[in-house]
Amino acid sequence: MNLILLGPPGAGKGTQAQRLEESRRLVQLSTGDMLRAAVASGSEIGRLAKSIIEAGKLVPDDVMVEMIEQRIDAPDCADGFILDGFPRTVAQAEALDELLRLKGKRLHAVVEMAVDDGVLVERISGRFSCAACGAGYHRRFRPTAVEGVCDRCGATEFRQRPDDNEETVRTRLAAYHAQTEPLLPYYRGRGVLRTVDGMAAIDDVTAQIGTVLAALATD
Ligand code: AMP
Q1: At the N or C end, where does the chain have fewer CB atoms within 10 A?
Q2: Could you tell me which residues come within 8 angstroms of residue 138 by beta carbon, excluding any fewer than 6 positions away?
Q3: 170-188 residue pLDDT tens
């Protein structure tokens, strides 16, 4: 099953993608994670993307499409993938349609995680993740079970994203509304859009996504 999780920064796409990865044989493809890895490695793409990410703007479409094209071909994606953070523009969505067509794959659903802007700044500024395994947490909404110790791998070092600060979040939200929101009518028109209430508690959202996916199986 091939899915897209769509929603503003802080909607919980990464959290739900990680859960889907654990509960189903799907691979999370987070373009944000791929770009951060490129920045950390100092590659050409990383050098290009660093200042764009820090400013909260979008990396050029051609760079992103190429990155995804290489990734969805990998053998681990054979049973399906969850796109988290891609596509972010109509041009990326059109390129993805073409890529999937050429590869004989299809998109089963686009799950919109609807969240009001008002809660996003608090959600994002409290985020942190394990420096070793990348598991995501939130100071208030999803702390580690034992303070300072990762639930998943036991590591004790954590990091916060440099773009998870209030000023950059506002630019990221503006980019979402201007450039990514047009994907909602795009996918609605193709009959694949499903919406869940991203304001609900994390377990509730997981349950709602489960219901959406179960209904797909019987469509
Ligand atoms: P994310 O982790 O999904 O919030 O992405 C972090 C940052 O990476 C974004 O604010 C953009 O600067 C960049 N980025 C991630 N995915 C894309 C994409 N599909 N298109 C353009 N820029 C992206």
Answers
A1: C
A2: 123, 126, 127, 128
A3: 999 999 999 999 999 999 9
Q: What is the pLDDT of residues 58-89, one digit of tens each?
A: 999 999 999 999 999 899 998 899 999 999 99
Q: Which of 88, 90, 127 to mutate to test the pocket of ligand 1 (most atoms within 8 A of CB)?
A: 88
53 Cβ closer than 6 Å to some ligand 1 atom: yes
Catalytic annotation present for 88: yes
Cα-Cα-Cα-Cα dihedral sign, residues 138, 115, 193, 49: negative
Output the CA–CA distances (angstroms, integers) from residue 23 to 20, 207, 210, in the order listed: 5, 12, 10
Which run of H or of E encompasses 119?
helix 117-125
Helix-, strand-, coil-residue percentages of the chain, each rounded to 5: 50, 15, 35
